[in-house]
Design a protein that fits this description.
The chain has 339 residues and is of the alpha+beta class. Helix content is 50%, strand content 20%. Helix 5 packs antiparallel against helix 6 and helix 8 packs antiparallel against helix 10.
């Protein structure tokens, strides 16, 4: 064997070892999306032998149906315009027994070829921990709001009643401390208002006793009073009963979308739709504002990020359509079986 062949064999062995022991499921993908090589980690999570996968399955077959369009688009964009295709992006993978795992795909073209190599990092456990932290946070926030309302609120109301009685008595008696009693009453009233504001911030909506549509309508009534904006909420057909946590995140996505439409887009009309679409539930918020430029996108950055995080926490897809010259459409879809 020549020294050149020895170097080639050593390099091949090195890359095969790296490919096999990255710690993540790793695959080699052909231009037509055929999976040509897989490592043992992918075999393990799929529950299939290599022979059933290599040169037999398409990459898109591993992808959950809701994410297939995105993955296919990125696959061909990477070959047409590599710099425009994302290197890392979230995606759901379908593994053994049709279980869905939330993952991060890291994909790159192999230089000088039309092949790409993809590494699949399972972040399902991380996402579940994030959801649990959010559930705990929401529960504690509601408990704190309830304590402020039921305990401190009623206590202050009692003190207010007593201070009013004292102030009236001192005033009738023309007592020199009557004005001081009045000031105390004013301070108590201010404390009551601050407590109510805190409760409203902690408990902005009661989703246990009303539907998501009713909660959105209550919110939009207040928005119309404050901003003189026209709105319409439509929900054709029966909407499945949702977990309170999912309703809460969808409600906040609506609030953030409406807030962006008013503050950044100067919208005069907002349409909200909640409807079933096949196996999915679709929430859509559309406004007639000035749209979203790169500048407004930057100014809305944290709000958009928070909406995306809320969608991720409930396993929903969030899409913000800014292609129209007039207005923005925020679309959030979630599998009905998840609600």
């Amino acid at each position: 064997m020549t020294p050149e062949h020895t170097r080639i064999d050593a390099t091949t062995t090195l890359y095969r070892t790296i490919f096999e022991h990255t710690g993540n499921a790793t695959i080699l993908i052909e231009e037509d999306m055929t999976i040509s090589v897989v490592n043992s980690e992918l075999v393990r999570i799929l529950g299939l032998p290599k022979e059933a996968v290599e040169n037999k399955m398409k990459f898109v077959q591993l992808i959950a149906e809701a994410d297939r369009g995105k993955v296919i688009a990125n696959h061909y964009l990477r070959r047409k315009s590599p710099g425009d295709a994302p290197r890392n992006y979230p995606c759901r993978i379908k593994i053994a027994n049709d279980e869905i795992r939330e993952c991060i795909l890291t994909v790159a073209l192999i230089k000088g070829t039309t092949q790409s190599v993809a590494s699949i990092t399972d972040i399902s456990r991380q996402k579940e921990l994030e959801r649990e932290i959010t559930r705990i946070s929401d529960r504690e926030r509601r408990q704190l709001g309830q304590v402020l309302h039921d305990d401190l609120g009623s206590h202050l109301a009692g003190v207010d009643a007593m201070s009013t009685l004292l102030s009236n008595r001192l005033t009738k008696q023309d007592h020199p401390d009557a004005s001081l009693a009045g000031e105390i009453q004013t301070l108590i009233n201010q404390a009551i208002k601050k407590t109510r504001a805190m409760v409203k911030g902690l408990l902005p909506v009661d989703l246990e006793s009303q539907s998501l549509v009713d909660a959105m309508d209550r919110y939009m009534v207040e928005v119309k009073k404050a901003y003189n904006v026209e709105y319409r909420i439509s929900s054709p057909g029966a909407i499945p009963v949702m977990e309170e946590g999912i309703k809460l995140h969808l409600y906040y996505i609506v609030r953030e979308s409406v807030n962006n439409a008013l503050r950044h887009g100067n919208a005069s009309r907002i349409d909200i739709r909640l409807e079933e679409s096949g196996s999915r539930l679709c929430l859509e918020i559309e406004d007639n504002g000035s749209g979203m430029t790169s500048d407004t996108a930057r100014s809305q950055g944290s709000g958009i990020t928070i909406m995306q995080q809320r969608a991720d926490l409930i396993g929903a897809d969030l899409n913000i359509d800014t292609t129209s010259p007039f207005g923005v459409t925020v679309r959030c879809t979630i599998e009905k079986r998840s609600v």
